[in-house]
Amino acid sequence: MLLKTPNILVVGDLMLDHYILGDCSRISPEAPVQVVEVKKEQNRLGGACNVAHNLISLGAKVELCGVIGEDRAGEELLSQAKELGIGITHIYQDSQRQTTQKSRVLVSNQQILRVDREDKGEVSSEVLSAMFERIVKEIESFDGVILSDYGKGVLSEKMTKELIALANQHQKIILCDPKGSDYSKYKNATLLTPNKKEAKEATGIEINNPQTLLLALNFLKTQCNLAYPLITLSEDGIGILENEELKIFPTLAQEVYDVTGAGDTVIASLCFSLSQGKSIEEACKFANSAAAVVVAKVGSATATQEEIYLFSCDNGVESKILSSPKDLPQNANIVFTNGCFDILHKGHVSYLQKAKELGDILVVGLNSDRSIKALKGEERPINPQEDRAYLLASLECVDFVIIFDELTPYELIKEISPNILVKGADYEGKEVVGSEFAKEVRLLEFVEGKSTTNIIKKIKG
């Protein structure tokens, strides 16, 4: 079965990212600064809101909890969150505070200036108490909790400790993006996501090799009693301590345009994966792929499961050959077809290209050697399943290949529940196996005269 859609609570400092994009062709006569001719302005969700946006992009259900002001920036933040499908019933408006807004000036996709408007004072105890009481009532409905701490007053020491204790009491994973040099308030969290600079401030250890990384991870484990001591390593990936052993998951980024919000993507991806019951190793690999997607974009960006999985496929043909449907991206428009594909020919490729055009992800169910022998006799297949899977996965139009051992792909289609099930036009008027599990069945014409059987006959003379 496909993995469940996790329901995540994000608590933290809510921000609005304001972007001013323009061109520059001269220096100001008033001072040695660039003169930017504004071409476009846009607002995006930032801070804890960007974490929530990342989770929504991955396909999670999300409730956002924090404080904003009764101002234009706050209204824009609420409007964008609501439009994205982020739950906003836990967001409190405080007339005594202003909504945090960060304005960035970009010229040719390069940031040259940032202007912050914010209130760093602690949120009133009355508002925090109301927040916590509401979370207590709904904690059972969540699969995971993220604390996104930017030091703007929501995650006070008392609030943070209470939320971690509450999550542990109800056996919910709780991930924290920490702030400051004293991590004691995050004690007993599932994991923290400090980068190397932040980890140095908290541990006093300069991380410049595996040995110092191991020391820093052990320090965090001892100080904070974490289930998974973890440090993000920028261009070097993610380092974790598991069973007293250091493991480093290297980054997958190929192009880096803007690292803004990459940390939000990492913590969102980790929580999403762990909430689905995946291992910490699987979660780290998934987070690395997600981060690689967003740093290739400009500004606080997000990554969809489709983008992440397609990016992963660029790292080798073998990565497109899956052992189970559970590894498929969720919430994508999946097209499924199946066959033996014994001797790949023009008819096959044309058929698969047309199938790919019908959706976002093309999944090919491939008959195993054993099932082909049962269907076509002991002389088939000509090519073993490993070779056939590799050739199919080498095609640009094929996103994933899954080998199945049964005579029909009924169970595989049931597990995937594709948007579109594709078969050849020769199925016109016939029952298509697994059609009850697809939203739509489409029949495609074959290239006339092209078939594996004809090729084999020609070879035999």
From TrEMBL:
One of the protein's GO biological processes: lipopolysaccharide core region biosynthetic process
GO cellular component: cytosol
InterPro entries per record: Bifunc_HldE (IPR023030), Carboh/pur_kinase_PfkB_CS (IPR002173), Cyt_trans-like (IPR004821), PfkB_dom (IPR011611), RfaE_dom_I (IPR011913), RfaE_dom_II (IPR011914), Ribokinase-like (IPR029056), Rossmann-like_a/b/a_fold (IPR014729)
EC number: 2.7.1.167, 2.7.7.70
Segments forming domain Cytidyltransferase-like: 336-434
Residue ranges constituting the Carbohydrate kinase PfkB domain according to the UniProt record: 7-303
Cleaved signal peptide residues: none
Top-level division of the source organism's lineage: Bacteria
Stretches for region Ribokinase: 1-314
Binding site for ATP: N195, K196, K197, E198
SUPFAM superfamilies: Nucleotidylyl transferase, Ribokinase-like
GO molecular function: ATP binding; heptose 7-phosphate kinase activity; heptose-1-phosphate adenylyltransferase activity; phosphotransferase activity, alcohol group as acceptor
Catalytic activity, reaction form: D-glycero-beta-D-manno-heptose 1-phosphate + ATP + H(+) = ADP-D-glycero-beta-D-manno-heptose + diphosphate; D-glycero-beta-D-manno-heptose 7-phosphate + ATP = D-glycero-beta-D-manno-heptose 1,7-bisphosphate + ADP + H(+)
NCBIfam families: cyt_tran_rel, rfaE_dom_I, rfaE_dom_II
General function of this protein: Catalyzes the ADP transfer from ATP to D-glycero-beta-D-manno-heptose 1-phosphate, yielding ADP-D-glycero-beta-D-manno-heptose.
Protein name, per record: Bifunctional protein HldE
Phylogenetic placement of the source organism: Bacteria, Pseudomonadati, Campylobacterota, Epsilonproteobacteria, Campylobacterales
Gene: hldE
